[in-house]
Fold:
Amino acid sequence: MRYQYLLLAIVFIILMKAARRATRVKSATYGTISTMSMVRDPDGPAKAVPPVPARPSHTGQGIDHDNAISSADNRQEAAMAPIIAPADTFTEGQAQVAYDAEALVGFYQKMVEIRLFEDATTKAFRQGKIGGYLHVYSGQEATGTAFLGAMNRDKGDVAIAAYRIHAHALLLGAHPNNVMAELYGKGTGIVKGKGGSMHLFHAEGGMLGGYGIVGGHIPLGPGYAYGNRYQGGEAVVQLYLGDGSIHNGAFHEAANLAGLWGKSGLCPTLFILENNQYGMGTSVERATAMTELGKKFESYGIEWERVDGMDIQATLKVAEQVQERVRETGKPYAIEAFGYRIVPHGAADFLEQYRSKEEVAKWREKDPIPLLHGQLIEMGIEEERLEAIRAEAKAMADEAVKFAEESPDPDLSELLTDVYADDTYVEPAG
Amino acid sequence: MRYQYLLLAIVFIILMKAARRATRVKSATYGTISTMSMVRDPDGPAKAVPPVPARPSHTGQGIDHDNAISSADNRQEAAMAPIIAPADTFTEGQAQVAYDAEALVGFYQKMVEIRLFEDATTKAFRQGKIGGYLHVYSGQEATGTAFLGAMNRDKGDVAIAAYRIHAHALLLGAHPNNVMAELYGKGTGIVKGKGGSMHLFHAEGGMLGGYGIVGGHIPLGPGYAYGNRYQGGEAVVQLYLGDGSIHNGAFHEAANLAGLWGKSGLCPTLFILENNQYGMGTSVERATAMTELGKKFESYGIEWERVDGMDIQATLKVAEQVQERVRETGKPYAIEAFGYRIVPHGAADFLEQYRSKEEVAKWREKDPIPLLHGQLIEMGIEEERLEAIRAEAKAMADEAVKFAEESPDPDLSELLTDVYADDTYVEPAG
Amino acid sequence: MPVMTYRDALRSAMAEEMERDESIVLLGEDIGLYGGTHLVTNGLIDQFGPKRVIDTPIAEGGFTGAAIGMAMAGLKPIVEMMTWNFSFLAADQIIQTAAKLHYFSGGQVNVPLVVRGPNGGGVQLSAQHTHSLEGFYGHFPGLKVVSPATPADVKGMMLEAIRNPNPVIFLEAGALYGTKGEVPEGDEVVPFGKARVAREGTDVTLIAYGRQVPLLLKVADKLAEQDISAEVIDLRSIRPLDTETFVESVKKTNRAVVVQEQWRYFSVASEVCAVLQHEAFDYLDAPVERVSGAEVPAPYARNLEIAGFPTIDHVISAARRVLYLEK
Amino acid sequence: MPVMTYRDALRSAMAEEMERDESIVLLGEDIGLYGGTHLVTNGLIDQFGPKRVIDTPIAEGGFTGAAIGMAMAGLKPIVEMMTWNFSFLAADQIIQTAAKLHYFSGGQVNVPLVVRGPNGGGVQLSAQHTHSLEGFYGHFPGLKVVSPATPADVKGMMLEAIRNPNPVIFLEAGALYGTKGEVPEGDEVVPFGKARVAREGTDVTLIAYGRQVPLLLKVADKLAEQDISAEVIDLRSIRPLDTETFVESVKKTNRAVVVQEQWRYFSVASEVCAVLQHEAFDYLDAPVERVSGAEVPAPYARNLEIAGFPTIDHVISAARRVLYLEK
Ligand SMILES: Cc1ncc(C[n+]2csc(CCOP(=O)(O)OP(=O)(O)O)c2C)c(N)n1
Ligand SMILES: Cc1ncc(C[n+]2csc(CCOP(=O)(O)OP(=O)(O)O)c2C)c(N)n1
Ligand SMILES: [Mg+2]
Ligand SMILES: [Mg+2]
Structure:
């Protein structure tokens, strides 16, 4: 057992080193921003977090490597060519608002906050302080940041998303301390420690979950939209979904209802399809014969466009415009935000047998945060200012960790509450 | 109770009369062919079958009419304009085989056999001799007859369909006597009286069901196709589905798998989408915003074409060609057969609040059987010959009824068999 | 009290409540223009319009999920499963989302949703269209599951279901739609979690719910002819299950038979037996007997179907067994 | 006998049988290139290629249905549910098609299908990812449902599952993937429908399956310290359920505790109690006790989660109750 752990630790270190090597050039340009759970001292060289034995996602038991990969042929037959971003198909948007450098600095700050917050969660996960599943958003921040920023809470706008949602909660105003405490399973957590990473809710800010069954949350969106319009509301529902979920029946049924109800202006749903090219380990090419995912909305009479989901200037250009368009028409509309998950699927999934390091490295070059960083520098924003933002964000994440660590466990009585909205008695274990 | 039945009987007679009136002109041209369960004496005037009280589909209890329809406005708001057949979008096909009059007479015979067989089933249902659900194929015969005719059993071709499948069983060689006996729930039934109208199987002839959950059978098709190709077979799977099923998640997931597996030539599935414009009482327009149903296959990388499903010359032109195409490519292909169900959804559903008599009457003018009848007469086939075919078909149906009526109930021991393929013991009721 | 059918009582509960409360909408297949395949919603589209009586495509999972979204937005949707047999397609939405949303949102979100439709066997509907899903859904905390047997109960419990802030699985006894009974006028809510003594007796307790309740009343009549006095308990609620009422009854009669159409294993009757052996251990004069459907998918042929359902004779014989009148 | 983990034993059963029989294919999400999220299928794509180890899109209903079609065409597909929590999306295919096809085709079609994956709670997987579905699937005739607890059983029962001509619901104890045990070499099939006496004893019978079996063995150790001799029964098969083995045991010990992670109502423990009160009525010296999970969706926080699962203490206390050593 101990021997296995040791072996694991070694494999892990090697993997980490390789990943670092692959990204070193680029990462040098963006200071403290990191994604592989490396904590960098702002003034010194990067230090890898001492790797703890990664746990397989289910049992806390060791992973065996007896069945090593033997036949490269079979593997090649299965894998497909890496997907290239169809850059020429990205829409430009016709944003009324032009975002000046100052505004962009604000978005930079948000993205950095998310990244550093999530780096801290990954670290805590590896330390065994966060349990269950943990899916971070690294690489995709530009999408959530732009679109959630276009929400109008005064009009009742809400967002419904799957399980890769720390960003969504934070961007909609949840306090980082409570989000972190939730991941730690503490009583001060945003849903009292009952939900964990996949089930963040912040109803006050319009964040309506947080769902763990792929595709399962999609029908809720058109339903909420209908419900709001039916009551005379003017809300828009932002409905986030992944490329992997689009092949699920729930998507099909929900999109069809949205299109149908949209005919009477009763379904203001903005589908935001985050095509990060993989559903867990399965690339889009290996999941469907028709890989132009946004086009699938046409089956339901839903118009759509594709944006570069890793360039916040691109997403910003589109976001506000489509949000208002949906509000006005009461009809659904879809965005395919094309991007890449530059981290493993979940924090426990360090074995990435399904994609090459080269591919990851290539996409890390498009990481939205250094991208915007570079743009801001070019626009004349000073490095010191951005550095200060990163430092603040780091402090925020540290503070959240501290808060979470110091928070008490939920009271045991919490086990039996919130089962029924009318507090019907439920029996304890035993 | 008796009073209610009487009232029902009266309503029923009125409805029948209206339906007859609406179709009288046309029906005069095709002799004994009828669809509203009227048995015509070949030499005399049509006689309506004495209506027995129709039973509601579930309980055997009377239906109340207290809640009469009160507000025409709401109803109009809900209903949409009737759909017009998009005739200009029908494909012509490039059949190698030209069907001469002789061959067409054969198809005429098949269609007439189905129609008269099903008329007999409807009659038996109304007499309370057939139970459960009964869905007949009247109006759609041209589609099944042409496509099933293109199957090649030597190559292992099979058909999988939903519940409107008497035609499929008959066309694939099931004996009418056993099919009728099944509907009567007799021990001589094609599945021993265990399945009824919705679950006909005739594995020997390639008829693999017979399923009652809308959409539920669709994934079986690509699976069977894969399984056969995997084993080196060269079968084509004909997969029949209705317009109502296409909005179900099962369709989406199955079509996507078919497209995907087709990329490696491992999924020879011919989707035959029978668009009869209604899923039960819901028109296509009321079920989806994108009503060009065949186009939905494009989401899965599946090519398709639309045919006039009520004109057997049109369906024949396409059928053989696409069957072989699918066999050669190992890829799925889809047909949208556009047509109309000229009878109620099920034999118990005599109240058709969801469509107008005028609409039904209009479509009855396109009934595939009189259509072909007229074409054959024009081609010089003599009426007497067609008359003889109808008489024979009638005799076949009568014989099936006789066989079914005289057959014994299943042995009670049958209740407990066929639960497990290895005859694991199962407990009786009590 | 006016006499009406189970179907009408059900419809009137929905219609009356819809008049009082605009936040109620109905969704389902063919509930509007078509009138509902069992005519439960017949005429409601005329009364309330297509925005409130929403005909859906055949997508049980999708529209049940959408109804959850509507509930989150403040509506009180009532979803019709045309029959509960189709609800396997919505099982994920019901079990994974509706039942758990309040919990995993830490109480931030309520799901005041009713999912209703006919449950249990009909006449020759065969394997895919014959299920009794009380135990199936009853297993999951977060749901309320009920199974009313009379017109009065179906009305009173539908009123409760609509007003209840939780997702409610409303399992109608499809076979009883046409049966008649007295129904109190007005706003008579029947609370969940309370079983009903449908007939008092002293010698043996017969326990069921839904379609089997009228069957038990017939059995009780027949047993009375044999000088056996049977008490009949109608469970009404499956979750929460009112164990007290039947335990009290058995403490009096010392003998019990539980009857259900559903399959024997891991079922409502299993649970009732488990509770009784625990709570009335010292009172039981004989093992509790179960009468269940045959362990087979429902057959189509009428004779097989009848042989596969519990019958009056099965129950009488079970009652006589617990009384040691037969083996 | 070689010692291996539950995970390896499972993989080797599949790999060995796949070498013997080309008609076996695997389907599931990320079972191939990714290696399987629990690494159960790791390496098999290299050994057998992508035509036999088929990575699917996230479409549980679709690929389970497709596997039924494959079975109809003569293959023996093994479907991985990445976890059984996702199987609600395939419930219609499993319950309505796989379980009933043989019956409603009048015996014309067989469905030799295995659906497998981890079942039961893990560590902090929370509400949507924590279910024990033995009773849920066990309710349906036409399915065989098993829940092996040891490496030897998981291998032997997988061999049986593959060779069985029926649809088999193979509920792996996910929490036990890493546990080790002796596994007979070669072709040692463990037949369905036979419970296992995991430890002999005389004073009380403890009954469970899956993840709770090792827990009961620990309990038995602790009880031994208190001079209480506990017999431990591992049910192994849920449908068919081997009632004989546990009834015989209770006839000997006169007392029983049934332990499960799943919810109490309409569950496996309900059934065991129902059977015991019927078949061992005169032998029971105390009511059978049930120990079940809390009646709540699984919470995320570790302390709540632990409080919601059955524990050693719960079982000890229940055992002492049936022995009238405590109240
Ligand atoms: C119905 C269901 N099947 C499988 C899973 C396991 N699973 C969790 S995330 C995931 C991949 C989803 O991919 P995508 O929708 O692209 O989202 P991303 O992770 O890329 O953000 C899978 C298969 C699940 N949670 N639910
Ligand atoms: C999942 C499911 N939902 C509802 C039903 C009830 N139902 C039976 S047939 C039918 C309409 C199907 O329409 P379509 O697919 O167009 O076939 P058609 O009847 O026109 O041949 C419905 C809703 C069902 N059998 N299964
Ligand atoms: Mg993805
Ligand atoms: Mg149709």
